[in-house]
Amino acid sequence: MSMAPSSTDEHAIDELAIAIDELAITITELPLETRFPPFRLRQYGGFWLLEKFLQGVPAVHSVFEPRPSDVLLASFPKRGTTWLKALAFATRNRAEHPPRGLDHPLRRRNPHDIVQYLELQFAQSMGHVVAALPSPRVLATHPPYSLLPRRITAEDSGCRIVYICRDPKDAFISSWFFTKKTVAAVAARAQAGEEPPPYTFAEAFELFCDGICVSGPQWQHVLSYWEASRRQPEKVLFLRHEKMLRNPTSNVKKLAEFMGCAFSGEEEATGVVEDIVELCSLESLKNMNVNKSGSHGPLAHESFRKGVAGDWSNHITPAMAERLDKIVEDALQGSGLTFDVAAEPSA
Questions:
Q1: Residues 307 and 83: beta-carbon distance below 8 Å
Q2: What pLDDT, in 10s, does the model give residues 21-63?
Q3: Which domain holds residue 209?
Q4: For residue 232, what pLDDT is reported?
């Protein structure tokens, strides 16, 4: 059952609105973190956000007009985002683009080119590209729930939010590999002889444990959407990456129902759900030429690196895992949220 905002919540929302207006002027005055190469992070609202994304936040709050049919895909960076974009787009647009079609957009374009990041588009063009998209729109965002515009989170907005979370240890490993690849790509474009800044695995782990990473702390980011999904389950769908891996078909059905485009009996009988799962599988996306040499270059391929659950055990020592687990456990205490999904049903 949904809960109406209390007077305290409304006061906090008003304060946030004022702060957002001021943010457009004060971005360069916010705490800066440069130890997460090659990204520049600014601390705002308790989170470390990418400077280029943060620049679009004021415009999203003041200009963006959500539509009742909009679906917003929210995630912590590098935590199943690419896969969720592909699944949501293919599911929502299956009538116009059958998943078996050889000219399906996902066979020709990277999921990040198809499903636009809201803040990035507003930072680059004040959202003209987003405004021109036909309904129903599927959009993406990385900021925590607390920094989304009230016009999106309001119960009567109609806009629905799908959030995908991942175990913090796997989240760290995914981030580490992507950052390493990004540093190498930036260095390759730099002047000859210019060495990339040093960035070791140990340094990255320390920063992650301190909550210093893109959109970090990761566990607080997850918690913000978890709590929203508990308050408004009809508006915020909370998905777990590990469960989706174990039973993608069941979770794609759940995703379709939540988005208001449930599969018909005929579609299920003819294998449409399985076709979408196959089209959007990480292996399938990784092997498409557009994701090897398209607009996102070699970094696109890194988006589909593994996506498996438990890969952290191949990289993190037991002591490191225990330390991170304790940090997360303390932060989530009393929330009802846990990352221990091994014994839970896969659906």
A1: yes
A2: 666 668 888 999 988 777 889 999 999 999 888 888 888 888 8
A3: 29-332
A4: 95
Q: Answer yes or no: is 219 within a domain.
A: yes
- For residue 108 the two structure tokens come to 């020709």
Residue 347 within a domain: no
Let me know if residue 199 belongs to a domain.
Answer: yes
Domain count, the chain: 1
Task: Write out the DSSP string of 295-311.
Answer: TTHHHHHHTTS---TTG
Place of tokens 């999106």: 152
- State yes or no: is 315 an active-site residue: no
Q: Nearest Cα to 38, choosing from 189, 236, 235?
A: 189
pTM here?
0.86
Residues 89 and 253 sit within 8 Å (Cβ to Cβ)? no
Domain of residue 270, CATH code: 3.40.50.300
Of the residues 61, 104, 112, 142, only one is catalytic, namely: 142
pLDDT (tens digit per residue) in 183-227: 776 666 665 555 656 678 999 999 999 999 999 999 999 999 999
